[in-house]
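Lab notebook, design round three. We kept the backbone fixed and only want residue identities now. Task for the bench partner: fill in a sequence for the structure below.
Input structure tokens:
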């Protein structure tokens, strides 16, 4: 069982579920329990979706991982490429199927809210994930943006299943912006060991790539002020300033240490999540 949890990146799947729950809380506040059935379904979809995507990733990168990640299940011979590929495909199909079935079921069940927006998010995310694994990952910056968009869609799904996607949009866009910066930072860090990819640092150099990462981080900081300006969050949302300080640090340290930048941005995102959560209490 443990080998399959490693194939599915169990920890990453849990983080995805957290993103959905945060999005739902931003959308519904203390009324979140009214949508518990829809939220459980959406969390199940995200878990299956991310598990399938990671299985496909390990199947496609199986040759690269012999050197880059020899501890993963396929290089270690714990799971065959055939099994990983089939699990990936089945899980991706299952994620879409659960979404479609949930929408059909919601027409007949008053306690289940699931509309076309929720289903569309699941379908679009599945198409993006498959496209990323098959060919966008090798395209560098386009792949960076794809992963960032998929991260933002976690929050959108949480808002959609509560029927109130509007308040979640700033968080989702902020997540996209800062994750673009983080993905570029990771590519700068891995530039010398990346194989089979044409990353942004390879195309335009580390410094120019760092400029774009810096701008992405700072754009996220600017956007974070919007909920305070429009009054959609309470004063406790001010915790976001701690996240902003870390994003600003990441924006400028990326020129010296891409590793520090992407690690700092990851921590800053946790503070931003906290700010959005307590900002709606």
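Proposed sequence:
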């Amino acid at each position: 069982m443990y080998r399959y949890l490693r194939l599915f990146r169990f920890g990453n799947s849990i983080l995805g579920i957290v993103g959905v729950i945060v999005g739902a809380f931003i959308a519904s506040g203390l009324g979140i329990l009214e949508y518990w059935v829809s939220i459980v379904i959406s969390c199940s979809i995200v878990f299956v979706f991310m598990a399938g995507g990671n299985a496909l990733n390990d199947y496609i990168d199986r040759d690269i991982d012999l050197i880059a990640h020899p501890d993963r299940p396929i290089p270690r011979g714990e799971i065959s490429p055939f099994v990983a590929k089939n699990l990936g495909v089945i899980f991706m199909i299952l994620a879409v199927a659960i979404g479609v079935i949930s929408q059909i079921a919601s027409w007949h069940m008053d306690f289940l809210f699931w509309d076309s927006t929720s289903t569309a998010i699941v379908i679009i995310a599945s198409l993006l994930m498959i496209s990323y694994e098959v060919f966008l990952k090798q395209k560098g910056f386009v792949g960076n943006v794809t992963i960032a968009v998929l991260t933002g869609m976690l929050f959108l799904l949480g808002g959609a299943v509560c029927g109130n996607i509007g308040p979640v949009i700033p968080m989702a866009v902020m997540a996209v912006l800062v994750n673009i910066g983080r993905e570029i930072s990771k590519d700068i860090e891995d530039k010398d060991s990346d194989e089979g990819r044409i990353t942004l640092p390879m195309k335009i150099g580390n410094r120019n790539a760092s400029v774009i990462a810096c701008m992405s981080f700072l754009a996220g900081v600017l956007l974070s002020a919007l909920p305070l300006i429009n009054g959609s969050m309470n004063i406790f949302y001010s915790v976001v300033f701690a996240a902003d300080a870390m994003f600003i640090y990441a924006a400028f340290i990326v020129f010296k240490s891409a590793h520090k930048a992407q690690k700092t941005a990851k921590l800053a995102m946790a503070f931003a999540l906290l700010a959005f959560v307590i900002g709606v209490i």
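Keep this in mind before ordering anything: The radius of gyration is 19 Å.
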